[in-house]
Design a protein that fits this description.
This protein is mainly α. The protein has helices at residues 5-24, 32-52, 61-89. The chain contains 3 helices and no strands.
């Protein structure tokens, strides 16, 4: 994903964060800026996890980068939802 540039990170991250928030049911709580942040951080998480399994994430292209960001965004939102959900129940 490093070859995409900052604009690519923002566009792909925003789309992945938005779709990830739709999948996880958190879209009503997030704005566009948080969707971009979730998508970009999700890309880092997804790239790290796929790298652990030996997947070459650097040469996958736009679609693979998007799915990497989406995977990481869903994982990030799942963890945040689990942590904040436990605190709210106490």
């Amino acid at each position: 994903m490093l070859g995409l540039g900052i604009l690519g990170w923002i566009v792909i991250g925003g789309l992945a964060g938005w779709i990830g928030s739709k999948i996880m049911g958190t879209d009503a709580q997030q704005g566009i800026l948080l969707n971009v942040v979730v998508g970009v951080v999700g890309g880092l998480i997804g790239g790290f996890l796929l790298g652990l399994f030996g997947v070459d994430v650097g040469s996958g292209g736009w679609f693979f980068s998007f799915f990497t960001c989406l995977l990481g965004a869903v994982i990030l939102l799942f963890v945040v939802k689990a942590v904040t959900g436990r605190r709210a129940r106490r």
